[in-house]
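Lab channel / #folding
Pinned by the channel admin:
"Please post every new chain as: sequence first, then the structure tokens as a reply. Keep commentary short and put observations after the output so the thread stays searchable."

First post following the new format, from NK:
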Amino acid sequence: MFKVFAVLFLFALHVSALTLQKPNIYKDQNISGWMMSEKLDGIRGYWDGKQLLSRQNKPINAPKWFTQDLPPFTLDGELWTSRGDFENIQSIVMDDEPSEKWREITYNIFEVPNAEGNFTQRLQKVQEYIGAHHLTHVKVVEQKICHDKKELKAFLSEIVKKRGEGAIIKDGSRGYFDGRSDFVLKVKLSQDMEGKVVGYKKGVGKNSGLMGSLEVELEDGKHLFIGGGFSQESRKNPPSLGSIVTFKYFGFTKSGKPRFASFMHVRKD
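Reply from TO:
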């Protein structure tokens, strides 16, 4: 019994030790010569060489055909279909039993954790593997060199016109790193954040008898009410207590709370 407990304990430690690369927010830093790419709004998938994991380090139940020819080295990317399709992507990827709808999903690689070399060399490693193994459902996210802030602004504008979420810009000269860093930045017209649902406020007027706003707890412990972005159906059946929701916002108030918060979706990954 002790041996079994010890094995489970060590496994739990291993699971909790997973640390992903996370972007900070772009604030007009000098990004000349960095690499820029579209930020895909899907479900993050981390391939540890044996299994596909969510950002919370939970196994993703992908079909065997999807993972059987993935490389013996680690990958980090986005499970994605198309722009503006998050709810569908989430329902496919987070389903307990993989369905035929996985045929819609592509695995879009934006990093090769722990591989040697700079960013371009790391991506070249997986690009060569994809070509050699004819993996049509695995792609490398297209990267472009950003020469100045004007070029970044134009790139972001094109993404937004196509209803994309935003851009990622990264110092491609560096070796692999994990955790949150100023060497990889998220660029969006609006920002987004997550919070845990801890309460509700009743609706008034046309929303009488429905949910008016959600009370969420932020990572820093602050509480915020989100009243915008909901359909009438989501007001009838609001996100459950304890669930994690994503909302967009535009800057911060003097008290440090997100300004003009608007609900986007519930996260299940």
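NK: Residues 1-15 have pLDDT under 50 and may be disordered.
TO: also worth noting, The longest strand covers residues 191-202.
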